[in-house]
Amino acid sequence: MLIAESQKPKTMIKVAPSILSADFSCLAQEIKKVELGGADLLHIDVMDGHFVPNITIGAVVVKDIRKVTKLPLDVHLMIENPQDYVDSFVKSGSDMITFHIETISKSRLRTISRELRRKGVKVGISLNPPTPLKKILPVLDLVDFILVMSVHPGFGGQDFIQSAVPKIKQLRKVFKGDISVDGGINERTGRMVVKAGANVLAAGSYIFKSHNYSKVIRSLKCLI
Ligand code: DX5
Ligand code: ZN
Question: Measured in angstroms, how far is the CA atom of residue 18 from the centroid of ligand 2?
């Protein structure tokens, strides 16, 4: 049945499953399942054991992930000195790269952003829960999207931190691009952040610890 233009939801929610909670012993199948289940992006958490107290995925793994999916690869860099590694992630096939404002200066981000945009890679900026919004305001014109952290980065399966909600509300007043939220997202918290103005949901454990990835992804996409 065709839906009349006026009846279509005004905002489309995009869902970005975070593979941090996937079963890495069969990663290709896990990715296929979320792709077939309606995921819009594939969220890949890169951690270095310095900026965050955990070590996860590097560019060599991203390169192989690129071979098994057509989904845009949304690479979240939770690492110190991201400027030293960004090229390898671009070469590995990343479509979107997020930097943390806690790890990069405005002048460096300007240079990297110009280069990435020239190559067709989207640039994101993220901020940790304790970081005030005013830290990212000066770089908003250098980025295509924002990733608001709603947990302290490092691990999947943590509880959502409520202070993300007013941050998103404020951001939506000044930023027209995609606002993504990462950490502790489920149907309840997803609804809160969407209401506040977010339109992309990065969700790890809620999807990969469920029995039906497609059902969970669809439920998040319908949160209008
Ligand atoms: C946390 C990561 C998140 C994490 C989300 O540092 O950036 O992407 O995987 O996992 P859940 O949805 O389980 O909180
Ligand atoms: Zn993430």
Answer: 7
